[in-house]
Amino acid sequence: MASNPPKPIRIWLTPPGPDSWKVIFLLDELGLNYEVKSFSFEDVKEKPFIDVNPNGRVPAIEDLNTDLTLWESGAILQYLAEAYDGTAHRA
């Protein structure tokens, strides 16, 4: 089972995009603490989100436990599995 970090992982998303929900599902499956920063799609190219992801695309996460900011759902899923799932196998 996952090792739950002391600080919540912040996920930025604009509903109802499917890629954001993939990340939410994995966070739930791993039992991790997280907080959702939901905002309007019209604001993806505006501050404060472009300070998190200059590309202005969702989802993005900020892991306050490791000071890592990451975007692109595939990269986020891989990171979460490797960092927090004790059963994940590394290549």
At a glance:
This is glutathione transferase. The protein is an alpha+beta fold. It contains 3 helices and 4 strands.
Structure description:
The protein is built from three helices and four strands; from the N terminus they run E-H-E-H-E-E-H. It has 91 residues and is of the alpha+beta class. It has a four-stranded mixed beta sheet, with helices on one face. Helix 1 runs parallel beside helix 3. The two termini are 19 Å apart. The mean pLDDT is 91.
> Which percent bin holds the helix content?
25-40%
Query: How widely separated are the two ends?
Result: 19 Å
Mass-distribution shape:
globular
Strand order of the largest sheet: 2-1-3-4
The radius of gyration over CA amounts to 13 Å
Strand content: 15-25%
Query: What about the largest sheet?
Result: 4 strands, mixed
What is the succession of H and E elements?
A: EHEHEEH
Unreliable segments of 5+ consecutive residues: none
What oligomeric state do the depicted chains represent? single chain
Q: What's the helix count? A: 3
Mean pLDDT: 91
Count the strands? 4
Based on secondary structure, the structural category is: alpha+beta
GO molecular function, one term: transferase activity
InterPro entries: Glutathione_S-Trfase, Glutathione_S-Trfase_N, Thioredoxin-like_sf
EC number: 2.5.1.18
Pfam families: GST_N
